Amino acid sequence: MVLGRYGGNRHAGAYKNEDGAMLVKGEDWEFAMILDGHNSSESVQLVLKTIDDEFDRLAIILNEPVETAFRSFETSILSIFKSQEFLDACKKVKGETACLLCVRKANYLWWLSIGDCLIYLFYEELHKLGQYVLNQRQFFEWIGEVNTFSLPVPCYSSGIRELRTGNNRILLLTDGVVECGGRYYENANHLYLDCYGHSVKNSVNQVLQFVLKSLGRDSATIISWDYHNQFSCTYPSN
Question: InterPro entries, per this entry (predicted)?
Answer without folding.
Answer: PPM-type-like_dom_sf (IPR036457)
